[in-house]
Design brief:
- Keywords: Membrane, Transmembrane, Transmembrane helix.
- This is DUF2975 domain-containing protein.
- The chain is mainly alpha-helical and 176 residues long.
- The protein has helices spanning 5-34, 40-45, 56-88, 95-127, 143-175.
- The chain has one domain (5-175).
- Helix 1 runs antiparallel to helix 3, helix 3 runs antiparallel to helix 4 and helix 4 packs antiparallel against helix 5.
- The chain is elongated and about 75 Å long.
Length: 176
């Protein structure tokens, strides 16, 4: 596959945007855990009365538990930045690129799994402010979760296929 200058330019730009997205995500996580209040949707899911205020450490623990899936997203973004870096450097069909693509897919799958655990944990932690007998555990699975599982699985399969293609390309280069 020919490595055109436009592929390199796009990859370099996307690498920068991916790194910026990582910085914004980290800043949003720090702000959300340290300062932000509980969203109304979470208050409803935890059956918290509107006038119920959580202690700062309790609120931070609730926010931190909800941020757990974002760690997998940071991993995915880091793999994307590395992949774009390889593309920008002219490396397109290699085992390294295939590995990054597989890890991007695996990261998306891990993010869904972490979200399935973090959401109920977050609601349970928030509902600890309720009196005994009024605490809540809420499980949910949405269509976005299914879409992310499919996208993650697709990326893993594409990574495997690209690994096979890289092996064939390497063998072909040996014949020339």
């Amino acid at each position: 596959m020919a490595n055109t200058p436009s592929v390199r330019r796009w990859a370099a730009a996307l690498r920068i945007l991916t790194i910026l997205a990582m910085v914004v995500l980290v800043a949003a996580l720090v702000f959300g855990i340290a300062l932000a209040g509980l969203p109304d949707e979470l208050r409803r899911a935890a059956a918290l009365a509107p006038d119920t205020a959580l202690a700062p450490l309790h609120r931070a623990a609730v926010a931190a538990s909800g941020a757990i899936p974002s760690l997998a997203l940071l991993y995915v973004l880091s793999q994307m930045a590395r992949l774009f870096g390889r593309y920008a450097g002219g490396e397109t069909l290699s085992h390294h690129c295939a590995g990054h693509i597989r890890r991007i897919g695996a990261g998306l799958l891990v993010a869904v799994a972490l979200d399935l655990v973090a959401r109920p944990l977050q609601v349970l932690l928030a509902s600890l402010a309720n009196p005994p007998g009024e605490r809540v555990l809420s499980l949910s699975l949405g269509t976005a979760d299914l879409g992310q599982v499919l996208a993650g699985g697709l990326m893993v399969v594409i990574g495997w296929a690209m690994g096979e293609a890289a092996l064939v390309a390497e063998e072909n280069r040996g014949f020339v």
